[in-house]
Amino acid sequence: MTGWQVIRGADFQAMPWRNGGGTTWEIARGRFPDGAEAEWHWRFSLAEIASNGPFSSFPGIDRLLTVIAGQGIELKIDDAPPRRLLAGEDIAFPGEAAIGCDLLDGPTRDLNIMVDRRVARIWPGRGGRRLQAEAGLILLYAGEEVGLVADDQNLRLAPGDAVIGSAGSVGDVTEGRPVWARIERLSV
Q: For the chain, what is the domain count?
């Protein structure tokens, strides 16, 4: 993949959670060339949390969760004090951690980015308008209409669409406030 790939919300793939407690809509997943053996090295998905309960375990995976809709959640991660997350707030945690989740007031929608920590790291894009994929990827989700000038393309994203920028790609958000993160490929 080179440049920027738009993925429309209608094309997300629905699948049950590993623990059977809900549904995830997979936006995309991929592998890096010459990476560690794994089904995937990175995964980009959207989930609806409709009830209190545990998260699935993903040993060896680092996760970044961003609440994008709803009143929020409270996460209990291993033995740490509970952490409250409202819409627009994110948290990074190891996939093998014991996670308990309580809804604050009704269901939420959450964006999830996961990486195999042997080959990549996640960096949340907190408020920046310039997106640059150096040796990895940019993963962007449009919770509202978003304008993006990306390389030589003028992209318009509807609410619920996503875009992936490959290594070397540069983009500038011209309209809207998307949720995005950068995945950096580790040296092999």
A: 2
